[in-house]
Every structure is written in structure tokens, then in C-alpha cells.
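Hey,

The postdoc asked me to send both predictions to you directly instead of through the lab channel. I've kept everything plain text so nothing gets mangled by the mail client. Protein one:
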Amino acid sequence: MRFDVISIFPQLIEQYLQEGVVGRGLAQGHFRLGLWNPRDFSTLAHRRVDDRPFGGGPGMVMMAPPLLAAIAAAREANPGAPVIYLSPQGKVLNQGALQRFAGCDGLILLAGRYEGIDERVMSAVDEEWSIGDYVLAGGELPALVLMEGVARLLPGVLGHPDSAGEDSFAHNGLLDCPHYTRPERVGTQEVPAVLLSGDHRRIARWRLRQALRRSLERRPDLMQARGLSAEERALLEQEEN
């Protein structure tokens, strides 16, 4: 997998990817990174990449020529990779999209700034994605969110190959169950006895029940869309043991 990021602040991307499990994945070669600064493709004085919007209004708009040139360069380095524009107007990113992206050989991520990009750049964009219904100063953080979400699904990036499969949304579309570690008692709170039983079947059922309850309580919107199977309904109705 190769990520190519188009940003006027490539150092933000590079610095973040030096740390943590994703940074180790990059250092170990589990994925590759290319950075493209639109200023390097500007023909204007001071490597300018923005201008005032036609029709008036506040703010500045990123100009089409340097962005289109940067996209073309990224496509040459990462052939066949879809171009993804990170924008508040895009579809909201979810785990299913990340899993699909993880199956690609490469991704080209376009991080906008200011009031956005010249609409004519959209002719070179394949998909538009958002990380939520709010506005940030630029697309670098959304690009990093997408990259980390995809990178941790790639083979070898996480320490345990099953870790990603146990995350929220990855297991039957449910939120993750509660987790505990040593010590067994913290103040008056104890680890649920079932987790100390060694009975893997009981533990699996407990975890599924907890995931179902947590999802119903915290994300009823997801559960309404997902629904419950007859087996899951029966499991929720059972008493804890």
C-alpha cells in the first residue's frame, strides 16, 4: 500500500507518521508514503496557491493549476490509486470504507485549505470523504485519520493480527465490549468474574452481550439501521451469570 498526500503542510503529515504503531508500520515498510506540496507546482510569485473567489466573499480558494499538477504527479508515482478529497461535504467516513480502502494498492489524498478548492479540481477527484459534520482549518487531520484507520488494517502493522478484527464496528457492526487488565481490583471495582473463569465460550457470550448492550445504549442510531438477530435478542434477555 502506498499513500500519497497532497498538502501545503507536508511536514504535518510526516511528523505525525513518525510516532506510534502506524509510525512503526511505515518504518518497517508495511506501507509507503509520498508527499506533494502544491506550492512546488505553482508558477506564481512566492509559490502562491490561493486567490480570492470570483463573485466576491470572504476567504481564499485554492487554485486549480497547482493542485491539478500535484495530482498528476502523484498519479504518476502511484498509478491506479483513487484520488480522495477530504472535505466536510463528503460522505462520512466509516469502518466499512476503511476496510475497502485497505484492499487498494494505493490512495492519493487531497487535503484542502482556506475556503476550499477551485471546483474544477473535482474533475480529477474520484471520491470525497468527511470525518464528520464540522469544519476544520484544513484537510491534513482528516487525511491522517483516514491513513491511520487504513494503515492499522494492513498486515503486519498491528502487533497482533486479530487486533483490528476485534475493534468497534469491525465485529458485526457493533461497538467493542469493555476490556480489563491487571490489577483485578481497583478501589471497589472488580474485574467481572466471567473473565477470570477460563471458560472461553462463556467469555465470548459475555463479550457479545456487552457489545450489544453498549451499542444499544451509546449508538441507537447504528443499531436501528443494523437490527438484531433472534439469537442476539435472546442473548440480551438472558440473565448475567
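Protein two:
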Amino acid sequence: MATQINPPQPVLPVSIDDVRVAHDRIRASIVRTPTLISRTLSEMTGATVYLKFENLQFTAAYKERGALNTLLQLSDEARAKGVIAASAGNHAQGLAYHANRLGIPATIVMPTTTPTVKVVQTEGHGATVVLEGETFDAAYAHARILEAERGYTFVHPFDDPRVIAGQGTVAIEMLEDVPAIDTFVTPIGGGGLISGMATVARASGRAIDVVGVEAELYPSMYNRIRGTDMPCAGDTLAEGIAVKEPGAITSAMVRELVDDIVLVSERSLEKSVSLLLQIEKTVVEGAGAAGLAALIEHPERFRGKTVGVVLCGGNIDTRLLANVLLRDLARSGRLARLRIRLQDQPGALFNVARIFDQERINIIEVYHQRVFTTLPAKGLVTDIECEARDRAHLDRLVLALQAAGYETTQVELA
């Protein structure tokens, strides 16, 4: 009878030694961001939650790590010719910043639809920005053309062993700071960060659960690993992980090393951005909030675990952040728009306002509608935006208005 042997383990393109060497290589030139416990979020989720504040890097994202690890391994000839990338996000910032610091020419190809602020920021780091095509795919194709024509070195945002090793240094630091972590919850876009972190987890000598997080609108790695065919499209808050096609290298590593992938809704992403600002006083982008969104949306998956969550980036448009915060206030009942039917006669609005005063609810805006309504000519609808302490406080106001004979409905958010 033949002796039973274990099947050979696949040789992956990134090893723990690669990550350790990368950490030694880059550690003097990046921020050693803190890994801190959040007692409030731990109470809310039922897990012991540690946050890794990668939004405190100079360019406000972990992407610097992989970019710098790649740049430091270039030959003198490659450095002289320069590097190129296609990106409208954090990879562009991180590569441009460290290339400029090292005296390496950098060219970043961005879609023509890229917001001006991102173009200006990238140029501010010393890079040459080329605007080409309306989509990322078009910009990527043009970058590969310029690479071939001019001899640049293309630096991929995720599908490169040097980049993956650099991103894995996040996990090295987390386990050095908090050895008790037994679960990593990591956003997945192209898969570079989770591939590097999973490499570290598997080499730790103990069981560490590695869970990836994707937005419901862009389940690309989920599809790849599970064989599903869900659409990847839509306007997600987590634009930093809105990737339609994950990398070939990263897909193989995720398949081999990652325990699970969960999906999160846009509402959970919005709530998480708001919670991190209110509770931790830290600004994160949608992708940076994905880990917390997973804990909120799938609490049973993480309850009782000691969880390390990477706040992978903090580059969010200020107007978008304001909208997210206001929408969260509305969903919690602290802000509301009430639609009240009145009769068009003197004192009607005054009598309604008196009820708001009695319930101690602040009126922010009043909108009268007399013309564009299906009501009779003597009827009108008024929308009143108001501020309450909480949902219960708002409910008391609505009951008081209805008790006074006013037909009152709340204008709900999607």
C-alpha cells in the first residue's frame, strides 16, 4: 500500500521573506502608522477592534508602501528613464511622491474625467500628468503604449510581486503592535493589499483568519474566487476598490491564502465613514471604511474575535464627505424633512412652528409649495427641515403634529 503524502503546496510569487525585506527597505521613508483599539466600535460590533491608521501616511493611503518598494529596486538605467502608471487615485499620489523624493521622473496617465483636484495634487508631487481616454482602461492602454515607446518602467497598482510585498508590510506592523490579532479584515480592490497581508498571516505560526471586503457593486474578486457572475458597475462610495478585473497574480494568492470574502452595501459604507469621523475623529474614504462596514453588516462573522482593520485611505472629496455625514444624520433621525399639509390662511405656518417650539425641535429650512401641487387652490404643502436629538425625539414631534390635525409625512432617504 502506497504511503499517503500531503499534496505539494503551490509556490507563490511573494514570500514572507519578501515582505520582511520590503519592510526593512521602506520603513525609514514611510510613516509608522499606529494600530489602536477602538473601545466604542468594539462595544458596537461585539469584536475587539484594532484600527490601523494608514490614512495618516503623507499621501493619506497605504499605496505608498508598494510604490516605494518597487522604486527602490529599480536599476540605475530604469531610474534615469523614469516610471509610468495609470491611476486616478491613491497609487498615483504615492508613486508620484516617492519618485519625486528619489529624483525619478514619473508620468501618470489619468482619464480625462479625473477631477481637477486629483490632477493638481499629482502634479504637485512632481509628476507629469497625461490625460487620455474617458475610462481607466483607456488610460491604462495609453500608459502601456508610452512605456514601450519611451522605455519607462510601468508600476502596476496591484499585480506586481514588489507592490504586493510592500503592501504586506501593513500586516507586519499590525502584528508587531498587537500580537493578539486573530482576524484581518481587509478591503479588496485589485487584491494587492490582502495578498501581502495574507502572506504575513500564513507565516505567523498561528491561525489568523483573513477576510476580504468588497463593495456589493464591485464584487470582482468574489466573482473570480467563487465562480459567480454578479455585475461590477455602479457609482460606489468605495471608488478606491471599484475594480472590474482583479489581477492574475493577486487572484492566485487570494485563492490560496484568503479565508473568506464578504460584500458590503453602500449604506454600510456611508455609516462607517460617518462613525469613524464621529467616534475616532479620523477622515477615511469609502474604501478605507470597508473593513468597519464588514463588521457592522456581518457582526456574527466577527463577534468575539480580535480584529485588525486597515483604514487604507483618507482621500475623500470634502463635499462628498459632507453629504455622507448629513445623510447619516437623516437616517438616525437627527435631521429630517417633514411634509405637512396646511390650509392657505393667516397664522397657519405660525401654528405649526409653535408645535416645533413646544417639542424643542430646531427648524432649519422651510419650503412652501402653492403652485406645483395636486391640492385644491386653497391648500398648500410645506416641507420643513428640522433637527432633533434622536429618532424618539423626532417621533414625538410627528405625533404632536398629527394630534393637532396636521397630515404629516417624513421625506425618506433612498
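Summary for protein two, as requested: The domain at 16-61+160-327 is CATH 3.40.50.1100 (Rossmann fold).

Thanks,
C.
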